[in-house]
Amino acid sequence: MSKESKHFDTLAIHAGGSASPDGSLTPPLYQTSTFTFETAEQGEARFAGIEEGYIYSRLGNPTVKLLEERIAILEGGEAGLSFGSGMAAVSAVLFAVTKSGDHILCSQGLYGCTFGLLQMMKEKYNIEHDFSDMNEEEEILSKLKPNTKLIYIETPINPTMKLIDLQKVVQIAKSKGIPVVVDNTFCSPYLQKPITLGCDIVVHSATKYIGGHGDVIAGLVVGKKEFIQQVAMTTKKDIGGIMSPFDAWLLLRGLKTLPVRMDRHCDNAEKIASLLKKHKNIEQIFYPGDTEHSNYGIMKKQMSKPGGLISFTIKGSKKDAQNILNRLQLIKIAVSLGDTETLIQHPATMTHAVVPEESRLDMGITDNLIRLSVGLEAWEDIWEDLNQALNRM
Ligand SMILES: *Cc1c(COP(=O)(O)O)cnc(C)c1O
Questions:
Q1: For residue 204, which of 67, 109, 374, 341 has the smallest C-alpha distance?
Q2: Nearest residue by C-alpha to atom 1 in ligand 1
């Protein structure tokens, strides 16, 4: 029976099997640092790669391996790799592909620490980067250089929720032989599968929707077998930002309910967005499911649903925005996203506080912008809390 031909919801529960040698329903947690060899010769054969098997958990672990197989199947890729955080995954990929003197083309607007990492790569290792809004073919082509080794994209872009047409970028990248990496954190493979759209590599902060319960920090990468092996044997093995077996176990549990959770996140967000849009104290909403969103067409084309994140500007100041957050009772003030709880944050002073003001304003991150990660509570209760805070402005 080929499990890979089953529906996404089934694969989220069964893909890759169970890793259980003794029939336990849930995957066993191999909480071990190392693996014993029966003989010295077996140890020699394992190290030589002649005999398959485990050696040491930084190199591989059965619980972690099952998660890697499952995410690869869910993303429609050949192989997966796990890391101790989303940033460990992002940095392992960027460092595996580039060397001093190379160039990366990035989407305009990136996760704050990815922005910081690129800055460091430039300053310390002479690996340069440029930004593009990736809207116009001409503009993308004009920013590609002979030494461009990678196109790195986030879509939707945090926190302004602009989208990039992945197939359009892939077409240009393929003509130049440049691989495309997508940070798929905001969507999860349930809403968007970049590899099936022609992209080469997907990275995830599994901390967010994949874990889904706010109890683990982790990262994942999916791509071609050869590329994944290269990363595994270089930047993963030797820099060592690995995922613990327990975190892999938590993520395997999280994945089982990803489809049902995402459906509810999306349904709740749709309700909240439509109510926010009509509120007298709201200036503008940024939500890909809004038919007036400038990238609504791209959303329809490449995402199965608009996701659970909404950003909005209020008719007011930074102080008004902070007061709204302070008046909330059910909704928690916190960064991160994709958790069961509805979370709210103020990007200008929190997630994007490190970005210089001018770049921040260029990115559309004004002082009256608020980002909401809609959780799994009843939408009526989320709205009641938000509405009372907005009404008292
Ligand atoms: C959170 C996040 C990251 C970083 O992931 P960590 O697990 O916090 O290291 C990268 N990209 C995006 C889009 C994120 O939201």
A1: 67
A2: 205
Instruction: Sketch out the chain's domains with CATH numbers.
Output: 3-30+61-256 (3.40.640.10), 258-391 (3.90.1150.10)
- Of 275, 313, 270, the closest CA to residue 288 belongs to 270
- What proportion of the chain, given as a percentage, has pLDDT over 90? 91
Residue 109 is predicted with a pLDDT of 84
Distance 49 CA to ligand 1 centre (A): 34
Q: What is the pTM of this model?
A: 0.96
Q: How far is CA 22 from CA 15, 224, 240, in A?
A: 18, 31, 31
Which tens digits make up the pLDDT trace of 201-255?
Answer: 999 999 999 999 999 999 999 999 999 999 999 999 999 999 999 999 999 999 9
Q: For 152-182, b where at least 16 C-beta lie within 10 A, e where not — what string?
A: bbbbbbbbbbbbbbbebbbebbeeeebbbbb
User: Tokens 């993520």 label which residue?
Assistant: 251
Mutate to test the pocket of ligand 1, among 82, 85, 87 (most ligand atoms within 8 A of CB): 87
Rounded to the nearest angstrom, the distance between the alpha carbon of 215 and the centre of ligand 1 is: 14
Q: Which residues contact 385 (CB under 8 A, 6 or more apart)?
A: 328, 329, 330, 331
If we measure between CA atoms, which residue out of 105, 176, 103, 180 comes closest to residue 139? 105
Which residues approach ligand 1 with their CB closer than 6 A? Answer: 85-87, 111, 113, 154, 158, 183, 185-186, 205, 207-208, 217, 219
Residue 1: per-residue pLDDT? 41
Q: Residue 183 Cα, ligand 1 centroid: separation in angstroms?
A: 9
Separation of CA 205 and ligand 1 centre (Å): 4
pLDDT at 4: 60
User: Closest residue (by CA) to atom 11 of ligand 1?
Assistant: 111
- The whole-number average pLDDT for the span 185-209 is 98
Ligand 1: residue of 158, 184, 207 to mutate (most ligand atoms within 8 A of CB) is 207
